[in-house]
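A student in our group prepared the protein record below, which I am reviewing. This is what I was given:
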Amino acid sequence: MTEDLSFPRQYARTQRFSLGAPRSFSVSPDGSRVVFLRSRTGTDRANVLWVLDPATGREHPAADPAVLLGGAREELSAEERARRERSREGAAGVVAYAVDAAVELAAFTLSGRLFIAELRSGTARELDVPGPVADPRPSPDGRRIAYVADGALRVVEADGSGDRALAEPDGPGVTWGLAEFIAAEEMHRTRGFWWAPDGGSLLVARVDETPVRRWWIADPANPDREPAEVAYPAAGTPNAQVTLHLLGLDGSRADVGWDRGRHPYLAQVHWSEGHPPLLLAQSRDQRSQVYLTVDTTTGATRVLHTDEDAKWLDLFPGVPAWTPDGRLVRIGDEGGVRALTVDGRALTGPELHVRAVLDVTADDLLVSASAGPDAKDAETGETHVYRVHEGGVERLSEGAGWHSAVRSGAVTVLLSASLEHSGATVRVVRDGVRTATVASYAEAPVLASRARLMEAGARRIPCAVLLPTGYDAERDGPLPVLMDPYGGPHGQRVVAAHNSHLTSQWFADQGFAVVVADGRGTPHRSPDWEKAVRDDFAGATLDDQVEALHALAEHYPLDISRVGIRGWSYGGYLAALAVLRRPDVFHAGIAGAPVTDWRLYDTHYTERYLGHPDEQPEVYAHNSLVTDEGLSGAAEQARPLMIIHGLADDNVVAAHTLRLSSALLAAGRPHEVLPLSGVTHMTPQEQVAENLLLLQVDFLKRSLGM
């Protein structure tokens, strides 16, 4: 890298400055090992599996893909490419691994082949098994590895002997041990099998995609290639049939039963030592969910707890879980508060908005939380790590910023980002005392973000404002505005972390005042804030962008006669919505991979917020961009609109953009469409990612008369 390198090229080449940064931490229970992934430089895509000794701070590689593959290029199966798309994984090498209970053995794949690493000795080797291999996981005792190959769940001894199938597909469209599309994309359940704590059996999901309607993703740039077949459960259409089975290594089998007619979604599975398995199953409308225990002899289930909500129920990392003494841990919305509960008793109150459970011990629970509705002196965009116990709540993370943690035994790995410094600091702490720091090889950005975080308007909308570097209000005057939101569910953009605002700062340095606003529907404010968008994406999320803009214009030099808006995915929907519904406020828009017709998006996400399209067709029409109502503002005052879409996108398919373009053409509405051949919902290709930023700036300057 040189100082002359442009930010767009550096941003693309470093994959948003994620390459070279340590991630995916595991801590051994005895505190002697911290395992993590990290590539060797800030531009190297290939992750290496590392082991750190917290006592000495020394690191050593346990598995280096360059060595294990002998310099050969990594080849990915179609299943692995799909898995990485679901997890938004753009790196290479060891991108995921699983460990045994003692964190002495790790299993992972390279080029669809199965490898294991002995973490004490730092040696790695391949096991010769059928492939391509997906999701290998050691048994808790480290004696065996379970994995999926060709839709079958298989088990092999750690020495490579005794490979065998425990369950094989019994028909086309059937797999064992894999997460179905919507579980991986929307429920954050990326796995389909779970070892028993004693290593003698497994809970395994059987997925039958036969009922799911098939879509075809073609590559128009290569008409000689057959379209890819995708089982896509669009809103209102059938889902995959998911069942759960207890498979013993001795060949025994018990089918796990629950009321799948009432609660068809298998959302979470938890199996910890000394306790029966825990399941969390949701109704299709996600207004009801049950916590179940499983009898490991018969497969029968028993209801422990039921949640009901008039709008919807969210899923959270780390729950459900057991405390060591057998109490149920969950996160729930009660009385306007998102609280941590143990056996139905809330251990946190309105001062915290709990996001995830990070660890559970006999003494306490470690959680991630942001400020709750009653928090005093809360700072916008921050999240912290807290220790919760019978005596109260104690904050462990220090300093303003964005914090998370991984803990086992006496050792905690704390990851901390702030607005002032690029990247994140990783500290290893034993019993409250720092013992080591994990180095990051991520590159330093060629620019510095200068985001100012605040709340705006009567609704106190969290916002970030970024002005050009060196801007002087008296000298330079009011600035054209670029709204840069995601603006929807599960997408918090206003965070107290430097690197989160780099692209917005780059746009600001091109001559804009950039505003990022997290309106209603975005996460981690309060349950009521998130659920205000029920049935009304088009109203609440757009109204809050307008309110934030006008409120900030009273305090910042914003030229509201020249306002652009850009976004990707939900942000792309919001950008198109803005110029179509509110051309009086927004004068140009860039919609990247926008959802334009919610009937074309998946069941679990869409029906959570908008209901079933057959039951509420008027809701879908109101929130659509391609209906007469959706285009109601298009004829009044045409505003420039650029629509960008990857033609290989299997999440928000290109049909969204094509239908919107057709509707705009029929309405006589000028617009531009930029199709990206071979690009998925991510844009990992370096040249594509760089040039997309440059083309967007050019479009905005042309459209806003700059």
About this structure: The chain has 13 helices and 44 strands.
